[in-house]
Write a structure and sequence with these properties.
The protein is of the alpha+beta class and 193 residues long. The chain is built from 4 helices and 6 strands; from the N terminus they run αββββααββα. The protein has one domain. 24% of the residues lie in helices and 32% in strands. α3 runs antiparallel to α4.
Length: 193
């Protein structure tokens, strides 16, 4: 690893920018421990859509990790890398939609573009899961869940990328942008994945 005397200060500035980013009131975002051993510097956040009094959400959740390696790993094509995760339960009928995975990825791209969050070297997976309970779980019925795992190399300002991720988490949970004051009539249950 090459010595970069300003790397810590540069990362601290980016971390402060993310910590100061305001988010919509119905998605609770909090800093969580970041993974170790992936990059010299990292910061991580969790998001829960309209959590209950215990902090649990039946609507959807996500994770966002910003990595910084001043040595610019070749796979990243840059010094910064975002790793993002978002998931939400679905009605079983929606879970069988053959275009669901493609639509989910397009929502990420749309969220980034709507924020003018410039990026490159994107990769990821969109997974839909269907489940059916048996035995003592048969009363829970059928369930479905969508999950997106993605990574990309972001350009500044980095705040735009965490804003886009929060928008994606909300969209997967059924909250379109600008719907903070819209009532949700019951969570989708049975999202066992």
């Amino acid at each position: 690893m090459t010595a970069h005397p300003d790397a810590a200060a540069l990362f601290d500035e980016a971390a402060a920018e993310l910590r100061e980013t305001p988010f919509r009131a119905d998605i609770v975002v909090r800093e969580i421990p970041s993974p170790s051993g992936i990059a010299p510097f990292s910061i991580a956040f969790a998001a829960d859509v309209r959590p209950d009094e215990h902090g649990d959400s039946t609507y959807g959740s996500g994770r966002f990790v910003l990595l910084f390696d001043p040595d610019e790993p070749s796979a990243w094509n840059g010094a910064w890398r975002v790793i993002a995760f978002a998931q939400a339960p679905l009605e079983p009928e929606i879970g069988t939609d053959p275009l669901l995975a493609e639509v989910t990825w397009s929502w990420l791209v749309d969220a980034l573009e709507s924020r003018d969050a410039t990026y490159h070297s994107a990769s990821g997976t969109s997974t839909k899961m269907l489940s059916k309970g048996f035995g003592s779980l048969s009363d829970e019925g059928d369930g479905a869940q969508i999950e997106l795992r993605a990574s990309w190399t972001p350009a500044a300002p980095l705040r735009l990328h965490v804003e886009a991720w929060v928008e994606l988490v909300g969209m997967l949970a059924g909250l379109p942008p600008g719907s903070e004051d819209v009532a949700v009539f019951g969570a989708r249950r049975g999202g066992r994945g």
